[in-house]
Fold:
Amino acid sequence: MPDRFEILHKDLAGRIGRLNTPHGTIETPGLMPVVNPHQCIIPPKELAHMGAKIIITNSYIIHQDSLLKAHALKAGLHDLLGFDGPIMTDSGAFQLSVYGSVDVQPLEILNFQFAIQSDICVPLDIPTPPDVSADRARSELLETEKRLEEAAAQDRPALLAGPIQGSTYPDLRHRAARFLRDKGFDVYPVGGVVPLMEAYRFKDLVEVVTAAKKGLGSGVPVHLFGAGHPMVFALAAAMGCDLFDSAAYALYARQGRYLTALGTWKLEEMNYLPCSCPVCHAHTQKELMESPQKIKLLAMHNLYISLQEMEQVKQCIHEGSLWELLESRCRSHPRMLDGYKRLCAETEWLERLDTATKSTLFYLSPQSASRPEVIRYSRRIDRFSLCGNVLITDDHEADVSGYDHVLHFKPPFGPYPPELSETYPFNAEVPEELDCAAQEQAAKNTKRLIEANPEANFSFRLRHLPEGIGE
Ligand code: GUN
Ligand code: ZN
Structure:
């Protein structure tokens, strides 16, 4: 048996990986369209044609329907749904969170998932909502952990997921993640976050996901439960989420909503279809509005655009430009910007996970000064050992006679050796007008360099002398 999860490429905390399941290997980050066994807007066979490599369905719905249950037990889940690739099954925990109870025991629904040959099975966890009391979050988490421990002790014919709960308490999320990792699950969903995403609370989302990720460590696959809007894929992938499930493609279609990676539009208020998927290519906005197939066609567009965004995320991870994608996606909504800024506050965590070399760095906003590369350089700048007369200049033609060392200067990095000017990250593309964050970071780095070399005598030839330097 090969390793369940292999990581091939990394960028920020994001990665391209391969997850092995009984029905084949999938590449991550991967999007799992949600299939409702009672009413599929797009049948699973068509989902496969559209590019879905893995789907997710709800074992509780199948279990509660005698016909579906009998079919699944006899011929298997893949036969029931007509999908040959990997299928993940949820446990009914979401029904539990919506209706308050479910009519099945935890081990019963887990064994049912095993029996119908699900590829990734989810025990019956308790999705604790945001903002509940710490006592409730803690006691529900204890119950979830007890059920998960019991699940992990079963012989498993498939992959087993260990959902991480803990409401909006980062310490509980961290503890739950560490506890579950030690029990050896195959996939780790971060649960109970749908209400955060529905309310656009992306700052809180970043807080709970990063807390869980820190508890898990970086080597295991993570699923973000209920993250189906393409707007969040770059942010979630940058935090190291590997699997996403989308009910959004269908739910939004039912409400006449058209998804894009930059947000949601009401189809009836649109004039154009800014997409070239097969649906948008073949219809005008008016034709789509008037089509008797409107919901299905809209669901198809929504899914195409979601799958496309996932490919975009993967391409960016591969070439090392996920930060740039994040910059642009997170500027599509002020609350996304809040989430992005919260992630910038985790730059030291990102720096430890981020690989060193990537494509040219583009400095695009004050948040670019928090990039892992910039923080890494700042941490290491005191390793330069200088003596004698040192010139720090941004005039690359300057007369340097009489100096023992010459350093070039470029915010947000500050001073760096000229021989590295064509090398990542110092070959960064920066705007002509640099913002305060870049200047401040450059000043900070300059100070660290000066303090680390008290014997050297520093001179500056700069268009803008950083604040507090060289006076
Ligand atoms: N679907 C959306 N959120 C959750 C969750 O927290 N747990 C489970 N099992 N399913 C979910
Ligand atoms: Zn389209």
The mean pLDDT is 95. The CA atoms of residues 62 and 82 lie 14 Å apart. Residues 356-461 form one domain. The chain has two domains: 2-350, 356-461.
